[in-house]
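hey so u asked for the seq, here:
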Amino acid sequence: MNGLGLRLISGLLLMVAGAGFVSPGLAENNSLRRPLTAVWGQGQGRADIEPFLDATPDFSARIKVKVKGAPPNTSFTVQRAPEVGRDAVKDQDGRCQRAFGFAPWSAADPPAPSFVTFVAVNPDGTPSGAGNITLTTNGNGKGEVEFDFHSASAAGLTSGKEFDVVFRLIDDLANPSTLLLGKCVTVTVE
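ran it, structure tokens below
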């Protein structure tokens, strides 16, 4: 399936599946929690985002992703669709237009991928060279990954800035058979 078809189906599923676009849903550790639901294939899970302060002036967060009921012994690429730098109002309107290719993230706008793969980064936001962040399920279809994310200073994610983001797990970027999609969440930079 091409990228546009994937975005349209994902967008329709997200609209049908649910309410709760703006309210963050705090988990027990005051992180932002969003469920992950299978669009293709099987499985369910959650993504927790816990912003924290560190020595850098930009956005830092501990991210924990858990799944169950997914295909066993499968590696998933962990991705996000952050809305940063296109439209000061739409960056944090709770709708997550980037994930679904809607303006200001549509084909009529400057090119940008709908989803961006998380890579291991240093505290200053530069790639560490350790590669993409993946989650691998065990023989029972359960898995989890936890990592720290630090934005690069060029992203402009300074204290008080808000932005929307959607998470997804995908088993194969070119020809997915399992795709777990999260709901939109608005994050405030500490």
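The longest strand covers residues 32-40. Helices lie at 3-17.
lmk if thats what u needed
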